[in-house]
């Protein structure tokens, strides 16, 4: 099931299956070379993260975001995720350092990852790792930010395909964010996170209007 899920997710993130496309179990199974059972489970998993919409009567389709939805998602992320990064930066040094070491390893992988789908998956893991220390002191904030990040995965991949230079800038932002959190600089963490999210939204809105 994991292989089927990762394969379908990669095809969606690369744009090989476009937003709004209908997904039938038999067609997807044939395309990726598997049976329908793992595909059925894969689509359910992807629906839980917002990549797929499943309707009991209309079947499954790749989620097609609207400009209004994107604006709302990123407005919420700029409120909640920025607050989350500030709270992480304010934690005890030991908690910050552990999160930053692991996130830093992911940042290094991202700098060597040219594939949009691979980069977007690592990006999700990177931000999740930085937020990990909030699971106990801020569990609701952690869950809300995680949900918004999941719903941002396809938009992020779309932005990277529209403007590939965004990947390099995002990699630089990630290094800056890790550095700010590692040294406990809450103001810098807030600024970097805000600019990082805002830049992605600008690219997305340009690609929608173009």
What brief labels describe this structure?
mainly alpha, DNA binding, 210 residues, 3-stranded antiparallel sheet, 2 domains
What can you see in these coordinates?
The chain has 210 residues and is mostly helical. It is built from nine helices and three strands. It has helices at 2-13, 25-32, 36-48, 67-89, 93-111, 116-131, 139-162, 165-182, 186-209; strands at 22-23, 52-55, 59-62. It has a three-stranded antiparallel sheet. β2 and β3 (59-62) form a beta hairpin. The longest helix is centred in the C-terminal third of the chain and has 24 residues, at 139-162. It is globular, with a radius of gyration of 17 Å.
| Estimated structural class | mainly alpha
Full CATH superfamily name of the largest domain: GntR ligand-binding domain-like
Tell me what portion of residues adopts beta-strand conformation. under 5%
Helix/strand order, N-terminal first: HEHHEEHHHHHH
Runs in which pLDDT lies below 50 for 5 or more consecutive residues are: none
Q: Percent range for helical residues? A: over 70%
Shape: globular
Radius of gyration: 17 Å
| Tally of structural domains | 2
CATH topology of the largest domain: Four Helix Bundle (Hemerythrin (Met), subunit A)
Q: Layout of SSEs?
A:
Layout: H1 2-13, E1 22-23, H2 25-32, H3 36-48, E2 52-55, E3 59-62, H4 67-89, H5 93-111, H6 116-131, H7 139-162, H8 165-182, H9 186-209
Antiparallel strand pairs: 1-3, 2-3
Helix pairs in contact: 1-3, 1-6, 2-3, 4-7, 4-9, 5-6, 5-8, 6-7, 7-9, 8-9
InterPro entries: GntR_C, TF_FadR/GntR_C, Tscrpt_reg_HTH_GntR, WH-like_DNA-bd_sf, WH_DNA-bd_sf
Protein name: HTH gntR-type domain-containing protein
Organism: Mycobacterium haemophilum
């Amino acid at each position: 099931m994991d292989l089927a899920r990762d394969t379908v997710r990669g095809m969606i993130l690369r744009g090989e299956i476009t937003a709004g496309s209908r997904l039938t179990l038999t067609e997807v199974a044939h395309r990726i070379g598997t049976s329908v059972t793992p595909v059925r489970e894969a689509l359910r998993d992807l629906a839980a993260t917002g990549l797929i919409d499943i309707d009991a009567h209309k079947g499954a389709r790749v989620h097609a975001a609207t400009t209004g939805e994107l604006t709302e998602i990123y407005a919420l992320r700029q409120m909640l995720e920025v607050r989350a990064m500030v709270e992480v930066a304010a934690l005890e040094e030991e908690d910050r350092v552990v999160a930053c070491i692991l996130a830093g390893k992911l940042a290094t992988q991202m700098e060597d990852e040219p594939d949009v789908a691979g980069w977007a998956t690592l990006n999700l893991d990177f931000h999740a790792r930085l937020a990990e220390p909030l699971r106990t002191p801020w569990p609701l904030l952690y869950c809300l930010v995680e949900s918004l990040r999941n719903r941002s995965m396809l938009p992020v991949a779309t932005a990277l395909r529209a403007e590939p230079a965004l990947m390099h800038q995002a990699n630089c932002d990630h290094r800056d964010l890790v550095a700010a959190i590692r040294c406990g600089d809450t103001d810098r963490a807030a600024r970097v996170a805000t600019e990082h999210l805002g830049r992605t939204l600008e690219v997305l809105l340009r690609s929608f209007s173009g």
